[in-house]
Design brief:
The complex is a heteropentamer of chains A (about 400), B (about 250), C (about 325), D (about 240) and E (about 290). Chain A is an alpha/beta fold and about 400 residues long. Helices cover about 40% and strands about 25% of the residues of chain A. In chain A, β9 (about 220), α8 (about 225-235) and β10 form a beta-alpha-beta unit. Chain D contains 10 helices and 10 strands. In chain D, β9 (about 200-205) and β10 form a beta hairpin. Classes of the chains: A alpha/beta (about 400), B alpha/beta (about 250), C mainly alpha (about 325), D alpha/beta (about 240), E mainly alpha (about 290).
Chain lengths: ~400, ~250, ~325, ~240, ~290
């Protein structure tokens, strides 16, 4: 009896609590949906910090409109991302959706963007296909293929003949494997063995043992960003570095955010990526200094520039439309935009709405007692190779 | 005609033999009591009879059917029911629900997941009759866990009776019942339907001699003596066991 | 007592538990009204309704049969994938999809139930957890079929029964989910108040006694496990139909753990626990999350500890009941 | 103060079941009491209630003038209760010596003295508890209670299930402890004749109440009384 | 081959040190303590803060990590856990999961969500060859420390009065109380030591398992597997289970990398279905 009355009261409060005040008209709102809890927290934190930094540096008024950033946590779950995106559009009247830490999170939101004609800026997720899921998607991060293909090119040019690939056994890993293997083979390289590691895998020892047995020139690795460190430590621990096997891969594995904790194990690892904290440009030096100052010394990583440039893209598009928030107009404004980012010159491909950027080859080195990805070669104007191949 | 019979029944746990070559015959319609000092193996024996334990050797027969390999619930459907020395009740159900449940299972309606529980008036009137018989009419809808101990004890027996057994095993029905509520239990036991064969396990000699027409004495896992109450009462060997004048071989 | 003298009256007392209290009517009316009155919260309400159904399925297992599971997402996820693949390959009609998903998940439940019959709570926790982990791994490895970590997209969602469109119709979609929840709730209520349902309570309460009054424990447990798995599968299918992507998170450990938490918060064994628990959990997650997107987990954790400290098996209700009891005692010294 | 134990209106049992409805009992210092009665009459419950491992509904228990009613079992043990449980309950994963040292408190009884009294135990001092015979286990159980250096020793069916030779050996030891050391004790037994030879006084328990109390020597001469309360046959109540 | 074995043992040993405390709470006190991993994490972060931020030598940080986790464990036991001993398992689950959420969020708040590694002295890095077996120095250290702990545990359990009191309390709680053993206190101390060991394991294992705020949930499954497969009636059960799990996991992934992810879960299900009390539990319980 009592139980039931409580139930009714509760249901009533639960429902009533839902109502939120209607949005004010003079402001343009950006909904930033990122994982801030769960296993992908670090990505979310980088994105949030970068987005806030940009707004702090460039003011919150664009084309006469006040810009407001609404941050929401989706805990890395697609159903939450989709729900929050819907709520932000419907209840908060946001004019932009942004964030998206993982592929399924972006995929779940794509139809919502299409349906509501709200531009959706993908700041992190890296699977090629995402931008094809909605004409309202623009990407400011990178695609996995960009780094995977470039590192394959670089390897083929640098006397690496035999490679073992080792990727985490999940879809992005499979993509990273495929992009690399196809490209490397087409350049005459040989893949000795392709290993896949379960997602829940605290110990790489058995896989590395197989690598030792296979004696390749290089080990190509792709794992979710945090996991790379463990792998590298174990790589060094088993003396693979001294046996002449080089460790190469997309830049995710030497994530600048975590790199300082890797220890000397990581020194010498060669990766290809779109951004390094160490990128030697004035713009980047200023960016890094400001970012570290605002975030208790935290280093900006490749996720952060996706967020930083994503907000820049939104600002520039608004300037071009004169503050109008019509989705189609904004998209038209975004297509083909070019600018100088902390990572170097970048642009939005007018056809694919995907990012075009320089991919750098970097080697992990110690500078002033800290580890950095030091760039030593660059491949400019790299488009997403997967889409390029489709043409 | 034997209602219940064991043939060379034996149970071993490692080196211990709590049941050792027991050949027990319980006549149809009998009021049979099983007594014996602590540790004689009474509980093991009842667990073997009801199928909670599997014997190491020997057979158990219920009427004419060999039930040695049947699971406990199959034995119930063949007509064997039991009570427990320590109450084994459904704390969250009320007496009426528990009894109705037993009758429903007996009538093979237990797997029905669509009709409302307690909607069959025939079953419910039988439930009510049993409840009245066991003095539970005034607590029909209370939660079992909140009943006084004596009522719980009554319910313990009522549940077994509701299964309409041909053979009923009563394991110390009066254990732990306060003096004030004892006579109710005793009356209940005495008033059990005559066509039901009863095997009673009991320490309380008041109950044993007030009830049983035949007594078996179990000592160290073996059947020691069997006979009419008078014979047992005057058997010097039994006396020795009970008064501590044991002079075992 | 005189009113209880006839069998009919006694029977009424028992069957009354199955009939509806006016507050229950009020609850469902309020839920129905929310379709029209709370358009801004439809997305959240839809999620709550789906989690409610999922928690309800676990309640059938835990609250009535006493089987604790830390891997119930196995059936939820399986149902979701089956529904999505069925829609992609055969028909996008949602109700058909639900039925197919329910049957498929039920079958999986039937097979795996054999593994959870024996053992203690801990063994069951671990075995169910193991089943879910293996299912997760399978879904991940079969990425050619399931999309793996990238998720499975492109599932068509046609109008329900051919006339009631739910794709991108927030209100319709919520109404659809709510109707499914309601129908399955009514069925569950019938089940738990049937002789079968009572035999489950008996097995949960005292398996030894249950078998000694003639209840075949194992077949009954297998049956309820199958039903619960089918319910979970339907819940998964609902989420698949209302979210544009099915991904590995449908089947992960976090989901199994969350549904268990929701159910315990709301309380087990009276069917509304899962609904209340999931509503509280998700509303708290959303609104604390809006205030502190990074650290809402701390406050949820804090709430769990407090609830656990003061609540009993009935979850939050026991706190209310205890306060009420205390006030009653205070009222008449 | 001559009494070592006084139980006042104790009502106790397990869970919901009341086994002892209202029991009062007194044991004098240096006195030993035989507690007799058939199975299931509440003897063990009484002992367990003194130890503190039953549920107490009401009543009070005083030990040596101190109220121990609200003490935990381990505190009661330190207050001076030495317990030989009914099933002996030797700690099976402890050696004989460890069984003694784990619970010992300083005093005149220590492991060495126990081994003096039961040489067989001394020989098996490094064996694990579950490798002992029934008699050895019983000796160990008694020894384990003694090394607590208790004010009151509670022995619950110490002779149960033992071979006759062992019974005699144990009885001799008990006689020494009780008669020579003047240790206060309560002995629960079904085996009346044997135990009456060791104790000063006897009480017969029936359905949770004391129905007869007498000096042991006196009771031994009254086989009819014993038969009445302990034997098989319909109790003919006075 | 032997290298694989070596790696497996090191991994298993680590699992053992972290999980043995859980075996105590779960098996001996019948308490479902899902927050056990949180104590391991606290120990790990304690060592991290000391070594990386304050430059304390690595070896000095290990005992501190142990003490830190043990003290927190004792505090939590006396103030919070003690209220849950006689509650249902579900309430224990609710309570301990709540604790996990709180510690995870708190660690995230104070120390950030990045993965953390403890700076190891250089002489612990790399490895050497020993008759063809590649021996990682750090893994060797783990094996040595864990073996030492195992021996010390066995000694304490086997040859101290506390050890025999603990075994007595486990054998028969009721009689132990009745014979003057303060079982509550014995269990509280044991709980603290278990937490301390978890903390030590967390510090030692940071290098292999890596520290992050979600550590307790991420590895909870592994600890539970160790305890449920090993049974909880002795130290040797979980120890053997850990070693078996370590070797099985490592070897399974080496020889059948495609199915490596299934191996341990399948082993666990099979073991539990066949032997619900655990693989190494004594035949009879109670």
């Amino acid at each position: 009896m009592l139980r039931r009355s409580f139930l009714a009261a509760l249901a009533a409060t639960a429902l009533a609590a839902g109502a939120t005040p209607a949005a004010a008209q003079e402001t343009v709102k950006i909904g930033l949906i990122i994982p801030l809890t769960g296993p992908f927290t670090t990505t979310g934190k980088q994105l949030e910090a970068a987005a806030k930094l940009y707004m702090e540096q460039n003011g919150t008024t664009v084309a006469g409109k006040k810009i407001e950033l609404i941050v929401r946590d989706d805990a890395g779950r697609a159903e939450n991302t989709a729900r929050i995106a819907g709520e932000l559009i419907q209840n908060d009247k946001v004019s932009f959706l942004a964030g998206f830490g993982l592929t399924p999170l972006a995929m779940a939101t794509a139809p919502i963007a299409t349906n509501s004609k709200v531009p959706m800026v993908v700041m992190m997720a890296g699977t090629s296909i995402i931008t094809e899921r909605s004409p309202y998607i623009v990407r400011t991060s990178f695609t996995l293929g960009q780094s995977a293909v470039i590192i394959a090119d670089w390897a083929a040019q640098n006397k690496i003949k035999k490679v073992v690939t080792l990727v985490t056994d999940y879809a992005p890993g499979h993509d990273a494997e495929k992009s690399f293997v196809d490209q490397f083979k087409s350049k005459g390289g040989e893949i000795v063995e392709s290993l896949r590691v379960p997602i829940q895998n605290p110990d790489f020892a058995p896989f590395l043992q197989r690598v030792i047995d296979a004696k390749p020139d290089a080990l190509y690795v792709f794992t979710p960003s945090g996991v790379g460190a463990i792998l590298m430590k174990q790589f060094v621990e088993r003396g693979l570095d001294k046996s002449g096997i080089r460790l190469i891969g997309p830049g995710d594995i030497t994530d600048d955010d975590v790199l300082p904790g890797f220890g000397d194990a990581a020194v010498g690892v060669v990766t290809a990526h779109n951004y390094s904290t160490d990128h030697p440009s004035a713009k980047n030096k200023e960016y890094v200094a400001a970012f570290r100052k605002a975030n208790a010394g935290m280093r900006p990583n490749f996720a952060s520039v996706g967020g930083y440039d994503g907000i820049h893209l939104i600002y520039e598009a608004l300037k071009k439309t004169g503050g109008k928030t019509d989705g189609d107009a904004l998209l038209a404004a975004m297509k083909g935009l070019k600018w100088e980012s902390p990572r170097g010159p970048i642009s939005i491909d007018p056809e694919t709405r995907d990012i075009v950027q320089t991919i750098y080859i970097r080697r992990v080195e110690k500078k002033n007692g800290e580890l950095y990805n030091v760039e030593f070669a660059s491949f400019p104007d790299v488009k997403d190779p997967v889409k390029a191949a489709k043409k | 005609m034997n209602a219940l019979e064991t043939i060379g029944l034996e149970k071993r746990f490692g080196g211990i033999v709590p049941t050792n070559d027991v050949n027990l015959k319980v006549q149809e319609g009998a009021r049979h009591a099983l007594i014996g000092p602590n540790g004689a193996g009474k509980t093991t024996l009842i667990n073997l009879l009801t199928g909670v334990l599997k014997p190491s050797k020997g057979r158990v027969k219920l009427g004419n059917s060999d039930i040695t390999d049947l699971s406990p619930h199959r034995r119930v459907s063949l007509g064997m029911a039991r009570t427990f020395q320590i109450n084994q009740l459904f704390a969250d159900l009320s007496p009426i629900e528990a009894i109705t449940l037993v009758i429903g299972e007996r009538e093979k309606l237990g797997a029905n997941f669509w009709r409302a529980f307690g909607s069959d008036e025939k079953i419910v009137s039988e439930t009510k009759a049993i409840a009245r018989q066991f003095g539970l009419a005034d607590v029909l809808h209370e939660r079992t866990a909140s009943l006084p101990y004596g009522k719980q004890r009554q319910l313990e027996i009522a549940l077994a009776i509701a299964a309409k057994p041909r053979v009923l095993l009563l394991d110390e029905p009066a254990a732990g019942v306060p003096e004030a509520e004892r006579h109710e239990i005793l009356e209940t036991v005495a008033a059990l339907p005559k066509d039901v064969t009863v095997l009673l396990i009991e320490h309380d000699m008041d109950i044993v001699f007030g009830f049983a027409d035949r007594i078996s004495v179990l000592v160290d896992g073996k059947l020691f003596v069997e006979g009419e109450p008078k014979e047992i009462e005057n058997d010097p060997r039994v006396r020795a066991v009970y008064l501590g004048e044991r002079t075992d071989d | 007592m005189s009113s209880l003298d006839t069998a009919k009256d006694a029977s009424n007392v028992m069957t009354r538990k199955r009939s509806w209290h006016w507050l229950e009517y009020a609850f469902w009316l309020a839920a129905a009204a929310s379709v029209f009155l709370l358009p801004s919260q439809h997305a959240l309400l839809t999620q709550i309704a789906i989690w409610s159904l999922f928690a309800l399925s676990l309640d059938l297992l835990l609250g009535y049969a006493g089987i604790v599971s830390l891997g119930h997402a196995a059936y939820f996820g399986f149902g979701a994938y089956v529904a999505a693949l069925f829609a992609i390959n055969f028909t996008g009609e949602p109700v058909t999809g639900l039925l197919v998903a329910g049957v498929a998940a039920g079958l999986l439940g039937l097979v795996t139930s054999l593994l959870v019959l024996r053992g203690t709570d801990l063994t069951r926790l671990m075995v169910t957890l193991g089943i879910a982990l293996v299912m997760y791994e399978i879904a991940n490895q079969m990425s050619w079929l399931t999309g793996g970590a990238d998720g499975l997209t492109g599932m068509p969602v046609n109008p329900v029964l051919g006339f009631f469109p739910i794709y991108f119709r927030q209100a319709n979609s919520y109404a659809y989910v709510l109707v499914v929840l309601f129908v399955l709730f009514v069925v569950a209520k019938r089940i738990v108040h049937s002789p079968f349902g009572y035999s489950l309570r008996a097995i949960k309460g005292n398996p030894l006694r249950a078998s000694s009054i003639g209840i075949p424990n194992n077949p009954r447990l297998i049956a309820v496990y199958t039903i619960a798995a089918a319910y979970a599968g339907i819940a998964g299918a609902l989420l698949a139909q209302t979210t544009p992507v099915v991904s590995l998170t449908y089947i992960d450990f976090q989901r199994s753990a969350d549904v268990l938490l929701m159910l315990i918060i709301g309380g087990t064994g009276y069917l509304y626990g899962g609904i209340i628990g999931s509503a509280l959990f998700l509303v708290a997650q959303k609104f604390i999350g809006n205030i502190t997107p990074q650290y809402w987990e701390f406050w949820i954790g804090f709430a769990l500890v407090v609830i656990a400290l003061f609540a009993r098996d009935r979850g939050l209700f026991s706190i209310v009941e205890r306060i009420a009891a205390w006030r009653k005692r205070g009222a008449k010294p | 103060m001559t009494e070592i134990l006084r139980i006042m209106n104790l009502r106790a049992g397990y869970g919901e079941a009341v086994v002892l409805p209202d029991l009062s009992l007194m044991v004098e210092r240096g006195q030993s009491l035989a507690l007799l009665g058939r199975n299931g009459m509440g003897k063990t419950t009484l002992v367990n209630s003194i130890v503190g491992v039953t549920r107490r509904f009401s009543g009070r228990i005083m030990l040596d003038g101190n109220d121990i009613t609200s003490l935990r079992p381990d505190q009661r043990a330190h207050a001076g209760i030495g317990w030989v449980p009914q099933e002996r309950n030797i700690f099976k994963s402890l050696t004989v010596t460890e069984n003694l040292t784990a619970v010992a408190t300083p005093g005149k009884w220590d492991a060495g003295r126990v081994f003096q009294m039961f040489p067989r135990l001394g020989e098996r001092r490094n064996n694990l508890g579950d490798q002992l015979s029934g008699g050895e286990q019983q000796m160990l159980a008694v020894g384990r209670a003694l090394v607590l250096n208790p004010k009151l020793l509670l022995l619950d069916e110490p002779l149960e299930g033992l071979a006759p030779i062992i019974v005699d050996e144990l009885l001799a030891a008990l006689r020494r402890i009780i008669a020579e050391e003047k240790l206060s004790a309560i002995l629960v037994e079904q085996n009346a004749q044997k135990i009456l030879s060791v104790t000063d006084r006897a009480a017969i328990l029936e359905r949770g109440a004391i129905v007869h109390e007498a000096a042991s020597a006196e009771l031994r001469k009254q086989p009819r009384v014993l038969e009445n309360y302990l034997g098989v046959g319909k109790a003919k109540r006075a | 081959m032997l290298t694989i074995l070596f790696d497996g043992i090191a991994y298993g040993m680590l699992l053992f040190v972290i999980s043995c405390g859980l075996a105590v709470t779960l098996g001996l006190m019948n308490f479902v303590n899902l927050a056990h991993g949180a104590f391991a994490m606290l120990g790990g972060y304690c060592a991290y803060v000391l070594v990386n931020l304050y430059g304390v030598p690595f070896f000095a940080s290990l005992p501190v990590a142990f003490m830190f986790a043990a003290m927190i464990g004792l505090l939590a036991e006396r103030t919070l856990y003690v209220h849950f001993y006689n509650r249902s398992h579900l309430e224990q689950v609710l309570f301990t999961i709540g604790l996990v959420f709180m510690t995870s969020a708190a660690v995230d708040y104070f120390l950030g969500s990045q993965q953390r590694f403890i700076n190891l002295p250089s002489y612990l890095q790399g490895r050497f060859d020993f008759f063809g077996i590649g021996i990682g120095k750090y893994r060797l250290l783990i094996i040595l420390v864990c073996a030492l702990i195992l021996i010390v545990l066995q000694l304490i359990l086997g040859y101290t009065r506390f050890g025999s009191r603990l075994r007595a309390a486990v054998d028969d709680q009721r009689v132990a109380r009745g014979l003057g053993i303060n079982v509550n206190w014995v269990f509280a101390l044991t709980f603290a030591v278990g937490c301390g060991l978890a903390g030590l394991g967390g510090a030692l294992g940071a290098e292999i398992l890596s520290l992050e705020p979600h550590f307790p949930l991420k590895f909870m499954i592994y600890f539970l597997i160790v305890v449920s497969v090993g049974g909880t009636s002795s130290i040797t059960g979980p120890f053997l289970a850990s070693i078996l799990l370590g070797i099985g996991d490592v070897a399974g992934k080496y020889y059948a990398p495609r199915y490596g992810g299934f191996v341990i879960y399948t082993i666990m299900i099979v073991v539990l279905v066949l032997r619900p009390q655990g693989l190494f539990a004594r035949g009879t319980s109670k």
